[in-house]
């Protein structure tokens, strides 16, 4: 029963984390065109650090706990998923750092590739969901 | 100062030092306590739980160093050293002592500057 509750919390937290990582780069690039309003940049970064980063950390904690309780650590699908989570965590750092500089330095603009991070996040998310749903194919 | 400003870390390197300290501690406990307990005394539970805890600590540390690098407060060289350091016992702790050496001074680094 505790496994099910942890799973529910994990899915909710991952939804918040992925939602933030999908939208923040797009919103950042939109605010990059509105350089006259630095308060919005600060609010974007503040919201990201107050909601999305804690959601990431908690979803990592619960995800690892679920894998441990479920005994999944030796399964290939989970090892593959963990590598993708590593990449998502690093991408979260890239987004957060750029938004911090963007919010605190009014002369900073975001690169043209910055909103494309959302697409990379979407592809990685699709890979994770596919792995989780089809894990039976990997475990045989 | 608005309430949003307070959410920004006063010292970007502080988060790396904190998470690096935790990462280093979990690695030491894993290698010097949990693994001997498993190998010498046949108690695998310590590794079973310390392994995942160290995994989470490593991911948070990875996030911290990439975040600070991405904001332009850390050089690419120090980013690479910081990541490699956490694979060595006491590496993250040692790296914490030298963080400021390669920290980027001022608003330079990988962030894009405004067009002229």
Give the helices and strands, then pairings.
The complex is a heterodimer of chains A (140) and B (116).
Chain A: H1 2-33, H2 38-70, H3 76-104, H4 117-133, H5 135-139
Helix pairs in contact in A: 1-2, 1-3, 1-4, 2-3, 3-4
Chain B: H1 12-41, H2 45-70, H3 76-85, H4 91-102
Give a verbal description of the structure.
The complex is a heterodimer of chains A (140) and B (116). By secondary structure, chain A is mostly helical. Chain A has 5 helices and no strands. The longest helix of chain A is centred in the middle third of the chain and has 33 residues, at 38-70. Chain A starts with a helix and ends with a helix. Chain B is mostly helical and 116 residues long. Chain B is built from 4 helices and no strands. The chains are: A mainly alpha (140), B mainly alpha (116). The interface between A and B is large, with 41 and 32 residues.
Keywords:
heterodimer, A: 140 residues, mainly alpha, B: 116 residues, 4 helices, elongated, disordered N terminus, disordered C terminus
Strand content of chain A: under 5%
Question: Which residues of chain B sit in consecutive blocks of at least 5 with pLDDT less than 50?
Answer: 1-8, 106-116
Main sheet specs of chain B: none
Tell me the strand percentage band of chain B: under 5%
Radius of gyration of chain A, taken over Cα atoms and rounded to an integer in Å: 17 Å
Shape of chain B: elongated
The unreliable regions of chain A are none
Name the structural class of chain A. mainly alpha
Task: Please count the beta strands of chain A (DSSP E, at least 2 residues each).
Answer: 0
Query: Could you tell me the mean pLDDT of chain A?
Result: 91
Q: For the report, how would you describe the main beta sheet of chain A?
A: none
Number of strands of chain B: 0
Element-level helix/strand string of chain B: HHHH
């Amino acid at each position: 029963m505790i496994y099910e509750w942890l799973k529910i919390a994990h899915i909710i937290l991952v939804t918040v984390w992925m939602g933030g990582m999908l939208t923040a780069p797009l919103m950042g690039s939109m605010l990059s065109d509105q350089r006259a309003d630095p308060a919005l940049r600060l609010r974007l970064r503040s919201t990201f650090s107050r909601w999305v980063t804690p959601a990431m950390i908690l979803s990592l904690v619960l995800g690892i706990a679920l894998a441990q309780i479920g005994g999944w650590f030796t399964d290939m699908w989970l090892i593959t998923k963990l590598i993708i989570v590593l990449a998502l965590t690093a991408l979260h750092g890239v987004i957060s750092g750029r938004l911090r500089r963007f919010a605190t330095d009014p002369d900073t603009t975001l690169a043209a590739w910055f909103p494309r991070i959302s697409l990379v996040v979407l592809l990685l998310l699709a890979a994770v969901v596919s792995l989780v749903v089809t894990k039976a194919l990997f475990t045989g | 100062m608005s309430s949003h400003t307070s959410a920004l870390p006063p010292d970007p390197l502080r988060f790396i030092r904190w998470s690096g300290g935790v990462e280093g501690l979990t690695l030491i406990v894993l290698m010097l306590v949990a693994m001997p307990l498993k190998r010498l005394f046949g108690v695998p539970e310590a590794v079973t739980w310390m392994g995942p805890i160290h995994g989470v600590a490593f991911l948070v540390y990875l996030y911290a160093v990439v975040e600070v690098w991405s904001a332009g407060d850390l050089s690419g060289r120090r980013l690479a050293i910081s990541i490699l350091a956490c694979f060595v016992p006491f590496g993250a702790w040692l790296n914490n002592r030298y963080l400021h050496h390669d920290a980027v001074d001022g608003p330079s680094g990988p962030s894009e500057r405004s067009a002229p």
